[in-house]
User: Fold this.
Amino acid sequence: MAALTTDVLIVGGGIVGLSTALQLKLRHPVISVSLIEKDAEIATQQTGHNSGVLHAGIYYRPGSLKARFCVEGNRAMSTFCEQHGIPVRRCGKVIVARTDEQVQGLGRLHEFGTANGVPALRMVTASELAEIEPEVAGKQALYAPRSAVLDYRQVARAFAGEFQKLGGQIFTGERLESARIARGRQQLITSDLDISAKLVVNCAGLHSDIVAQLTGGSPRVRIIPFRGEYYALTDASRTLVNGLVYPVPDPALPFLDVHLTPRVGGGVEAGPNAVLATKREGYRRRDFSLRDFTATLAYPGFWLLAARNIRPGLAEINRSVRKSVFVASLQRLVPAITANDLLPGGAGVRAQAVDRRGRLLDDFHIEESTAAIHVLNAPSPAATSSIPIGQHLADMAASKLA
Assistant:
């Protein structure tokens, strides 16, 4: 077993972990930084299953980390992609209100987006909406012309390349097996490495709460995995939308309803729904892990969450197993869509942090423990926000090492 000594060890080779590693070397070049990833390649989990949206910063409460990091991240990500030749498709986004109640909700989103500094954000009438998205039905819409799509796997690979140029080390196929603190340092064992680190930065996504416990933390939340399933529009149906088409979120529901997302390389995705996954990496319905599912069922916060969301939870399952229900949801946005327009698509798994009172954490959530920093909630818009998140974590790490 090879020995590795480093100042900072990043656990997790997704876009947040890679950004943090790169920002540490950029902002604090004298600090030695290494990164381990359990999979054979980087960016294969949440980053690799990401829908690719470059979010503008509309949904997030002003003053929250999401609001701050998303708007900053949109600008920083755009610049990074331009510098590295990564394609960005500026397709724009409409958030569509169909009812008077939703129009009121749209007004709140406009207030949020304006307070957050989203550029060029404006309300549009039904007739203006028809010019932007002729097939989309709505009374009114919020239009964010700078919303875009890209491939975050390309970004992750570029982060990794820049990090390695600066002397950082990446080790793939290295699953964290055990850890202990000795003489103020983290002593970790992986598949093939015996690692000594002054500080661990836990960016393990779907496994972040487990890594936190292994490295001496006592996380106040548990990761509950939710699978989001997609359909893809047929080639003949892609012209039904020009850009991103979203509904007004229902504040009574824990997740956003299905929407339509163009891909940077062509094609349009429809979805996702949000169903409980019985495996942390459960990208298929048949994926099951007794250990993962038992851990979910043993967590008191899960049952409190389930009790408050029985009806929407059953509705999501119904939409998952019945294509006609999925189609009906999409038709509320684009009436012309039919079942024949949809082909089976992929899926992602959202690492959702839930506290012991059964509340879904809405904002990014970071905890600290002895010789460790833990990123325990980084759902959307984490990919958009990955550069400022990485800068924030890099400075936290440098402060703990000082």
